[in-house]
Every structure is written in structure tokens, then in C-alpha cells.
């Protein structure tokens, strides 16, 4: 790009900026630039991981609240006693462990099941509570 006999170079990519600085012999600038890039990249990764974990915790808590509300409704309406033993067992575990993940709940069952098995049972409880 030329402006009144002056030339400018526009480089957007960080890798290309480093290459250009190295090409013109600005080795100290390359090191400083790379240091800043690495710090920013690491900060970004840490933030993404933290955001992901926060979202997972929030999702687990919200699901747990819905499940516990359904279990309490079943107890209030007398439908809880009509549940089969597998559903009662998972319902009791959920009430006792509101912050536990589905995987952890599944491991605590008399006959352990995986995440999908626990999820199926808890969804069944919610459906029964809704009258479906």
C-alpha cells in the first residue's frame, strides 16, 4: 500500500508477523512478540476450559433441580411408592446426592449402570411426575 511515497505492509496473522520481524533482523522483537502471543493463547485456553466447566456444572445442577422436584412431587402425590425398585433406588440417590454427576450416581447403585442408564431412569421419573 502506498501513501504519498510511503509504503506500508499490513500483516494480520501472528505467525506471519513473527516471520517478517525475523526477516528484517528484529530478533528481540520476535521474542517479545512470541512471548505475548503465547501468554494470550494460554489465557484464552484457560478461559475456554473454565467456561466449559462452568457450563457443565450449571447443566448438572439444573438437571438435578428438575429431577429432585419430580421426585418430591411423586412423594407428595403418593406415586413414589408405585415406582419399581430401580427407579426408587436412583431417586433416593439423587435426593441424597443433588450435586453428583450421572456417572457418579450410576457407580453408587447396587448394580452399577452407566450414564445413559441413569439418565434413562431419571427421565422416566420426570415423565411419571408429569403424568405422561
How would you describe this protein?
It is a single chain. The chain has 132 residues and is mainly α. It has a domain at 61-130. The chain is 73% helix and 3% strand. It is built from 5 helices and 2 strands. It has helices spanning 14-23, 27-77, 85-96, 102-108, 115-130, and strands at residues 2-3, 6-7. Strands 1-2 form a two-stranded antiparallel sheet. Helix 3 packs across helix 5 (115-130). The mean pLDDT is 92.
The ordered H/E elements are: EEHHHHH
Percentage of residues in DSSP E strands: under 5%
The overall pLDDT, averaged over residues, is 92
What radius of gyration results from the CA coordinates? 28 Å
In order across it, which strands form the biggest sheet?
Answer: 1-2
Note the main sheet: 2 strands, antiparallel
Tally of alpha and pi helices:
5
Oligomer: single chain
Number of strands: 2
Helix/strand-derived class?
A: mainly alpha
In which range does the helix fraction lie?
A: over 70%
Question: N- to C-terminal separation?
Answer: 68 Å
Uncertain parts: none
3D shape: rod-shaped
TL;DR of this structure?
This protein has 132 residues and is mainly α. It has helices at residues 14-23, 27-77, 85-96, 102-108, 115-130; strands spanning 2-3, 6-7.
Features:
two-stranded antiparallel sheet; 5 helices; 132 residues; single chain; mainly alpha
SSE blueprint and pairings:
Blueprint: E1 2-3, E2 6-7, H1 14-23, H2 27-77, H3 85-96, H4 102-108, H5 115-130
Antiparallel strand pairs: 1-2
Helix pairs in contact: 1-2, 2-5, 3-5, 4-5
Amino acid at each position: 500500500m502506498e501513501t504519498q511515497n510511503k509504503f506500508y505492509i499490513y500483516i494480520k496473522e501472528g505467525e506471519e508477523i513473527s516471520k517478517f520481524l525475523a526477516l528484517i533482523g528484529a530478533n528481540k522483537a520476535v521474542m517479545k512478540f512470541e512471548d505475548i502471543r503465547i501468554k494470550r493463547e494460554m489465557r484464552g485456553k484457560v478461559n475456554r476450559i473454565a467456561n466449559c466447566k462452568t457450563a457443565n456444572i450449571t447443566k448438572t445442577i439444573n438437571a438435578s433441580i428438575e429431577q429432585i422436584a419430580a421426585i418430591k412431587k411423586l412423594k407428595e402425590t403418593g406415586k413414589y411408592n408405585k415406582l419399581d425398585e430401580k427407579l426408587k433406588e436412583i431417586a433416593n440417590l439423587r435426593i441424597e446426592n443433588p450435586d453428583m454427576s450421572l456417572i457418579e450416581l450410576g457407580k453408587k447403585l447396587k448394580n452399577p449402570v452407566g450414564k445413559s442408564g441413569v439418565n434413562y431412569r431419571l427421565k422416566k421419573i420426570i415423565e411419571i411426575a408429569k403424568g405422561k
